[in-house]
Amino acid sequence: xxxxxxxxxxxxxxxxxxxxxxxxxxxxxxxxxxxxxxxxxxxxxxxxxxxxxxxxxxxxxxxxxxxxxxxxxxxxxxxxxxxxxxxxxxxxxxxxxxxxxxxxxxxxxxxxxxxxxxxxxxxxxxxxxxxxxxxxxxxxxxxxxxxxxxxxxxxxxxxxxxxxxxxxxxxxxxxxxxxxxxxxxxxxxxxxxxxxxxxxxxxxxxxxxxxxxxxxxxxxxxxxxxxxxxxxxxxxxxxxxxxxxxxxxxxxxxxxxxxxxxxxxxxxxxxxxxxxxxxxxxxxxxxxxxxxxxxxxxxxxxxxxxxxxxxxxxxxxxxxxxxxxxxxxxxxxxxxxxxxxxxxxxxxxxxxxxxxxxxxxxxxxxxxxxxxxxxxxxxxxxxxxxxxxxxxxxxxxxxxxxxxxxxxxxxxxxxxxxxxxxxxxxxxxxxxxxxxxxxxxxxxxxxxxxxxxxxxxxxxxxxxxxxxxxxxxxxxxxxxxxxxxxx
Length: 487
Known about the structure:
41% of the residues lie in helices and 19% in strands.
């Protein structure tokens, strides 16, 4: 219990470190540019709201707010931002004028620093590698959910998907560039029937599938269209329960179950189906155990499922590693940046389409981003995944801030360009109205997205924890077990 608490605290600190580093570097760009161009800087703040900590040094207030939703550098000569930054001590009209060029430099510095930080992360990822699971690199179907759209249309385990709705695909799921995944093309397709081109036993054919949308659970985000298939992945054992059938035949964490009764396995779900058909009778499992990096051993065990001491169906006592076999890839920095830009563009394009089922509610705010970081750090090699995710996040932060909307950096640049064209500054009262109005819209957007982010948090769901599940033990003296063994 104590170790679990320490682990949770450690992961939380890692999340806070990465998230704050992203904000700090972006705002540091604005700060250094403002000091370089001689603009007045009042505050340097990480997060918003009433400060938890504050210190004034050489006339600049440095503070840490209590609302984890970004940060800001208060530069009153750039634009009045009292709606987000609080009341300013200096009157905007009394401050010396600033040239449009200096405003553009200061506004542009934040996104540039975010891109520089992203590039630093890309170089680190290039060197240390990014973990990629077996299922992220294949478009082969590992399992078709019974009764789902894919099953009704005739898709089968082992089919290799070549294209969806005319778009070539190389994988079924996965993050990064999304246009080459089956799940993304299904979700963004608007036609009632989706043509899916597959290769089966060396023969290509096209099958039309009618996707489904699962009913939304409560107030959560609306579910997207899906065909209910899982990618091919060799089942890998994550944990073996003590005194279970799996433990008794010597199975270990890290073992790969490559076949059952001579049938090649592409998913742990397929093994569950085989066990169900066996109705408690022994099954032969072909196991591959990696001894070293370059050597492995393949052997066969005969194993009979038994009933847990809390009842239920007969089981082997195995918990599966969801990621399966993981390898390291070393994408170069420019391919990482390109993939991040592509991901952002595809997401915004999908949200902007009038009839798209992907809407603003499917975006994530600070709470959702920190939750993703937390899940990444909890997984094996999590720090590598967090580095890779930070590339995507910083590229998104830089480019989204360049949108020509007031309050954002792109809005400041747009206003400065208007001043340049008009050859006179925009009246500060007009600027204040525009900034306040847009700030209100931005705050409303953040509240809306955060509402759905909070609903995604684990403690909002009434599900049994994995830790509780893994405490189950097999009882060799259990009456139900004895009765099963007699059959």
